[in-house]
Amino acid sequence: MVYAIVRAGGRQEKVSVGDLVTLDRVPAEAGSSIELPALMVVDGDKVTSEKKELDNVKVSAEVLEHLRGKKVVIQKFKNKTGYKKRQGHRQNQTKVKITSIA
Length: 102
Fold this sequence. Notes:
The protein is mainly beta. Helix content is 4%, strand content 63%. It has one helix at 51-54, and strands at residues 2-8, 11-15, 20-24, 33-36, 38-43, 46-48, 59-68, 72-78, 83-89, 92-101. A hairpin with a 4-residue loop joins strand 8 and strand 9. It is elongated, with a radius of gyration of 19 Å. This is Large ribosomal subunit protein bL21. One of its GO terms (cellular component) is ribosome. One of its GO terms (biological process) is translation. Belongs to the bacterial ribosomal protein bL21 family.
């Protein structure tokens, strides 16, 4: 089984061909193709993690859609002072499909 660890949006994701992955918003149009930088590639028993060898590895993904994540509610409260604050946040995200690891 071939899989790769890629850097995507400040995080690391384990991906293989055909996976659907939700990343932080990527500045690309829906239907276009992007490349993700590989940090490690596992091909059966062979593990590749050296920088020189990883420069030749291309992890391609197709942008499927842009969406927004679930709402996160932030609440702050201080006892006996009458202070309370409620705020919400929805993260911009992109759903991609991994097309190749070469």
